[in-house]
Design brief:
By secondary structure, the protein is of the alpha+beta class. The protein has helices spanning 10-14, 19-27, 48-68, 78-85, 90-99, 121-139, and strands spanning 2-4, 34-38, 41-45, 69-75, 101-104, 114-120. The strands form two sheets. Strands 1-3-2 form a three-stranded antiparallel β-sheet, with helices on one face. Helix 5 (90-99) packs antiparallel against helix 6. The longest helix is centred in the middle third of the chain and has 21 residues, at 48-68. It is elongated.
Length: 141
Amino acid sequence: LTIDCPAWLHKYIIGKKGAGIQKISADCQLSKVHIGFEGEKIKIDGPPEEAEKAFKELENQANELMKSTTYVEMKVDAKYHKHIIGKGGSTINKIKAESDVIINIPDSDSGVTVIRIEGNKEGVKKAKDELQAMVEKMENE
């Protein structure tokens, strides 16, 4: 059994230290099912009855995530990254908390300028708008 699911969403299903998958295994009483995450797919192998339960649960989660979750990537000059992060991460952590998103800022010495925001659609838009405003303000200083 195979479910189509963008690779970047897999971590949301797997959960911290596999907690999401363990919960599915416990809830569906799966003892002999193997769940594999490969590319843009989730593969489920095992006895038909158990595999079917896992398939239904995983398909629901994947569909829910595809509907409610998104990401944007913004190019932001590396010289602004430290200002966006703030002292001890204060600025970025505030934005993350208020919009309930994950924000990945590359190390400023990595040469990568793309900041990635992931999470619920509303939160991603809110965080992006906030970062955009901060960057515009810095560019005009």
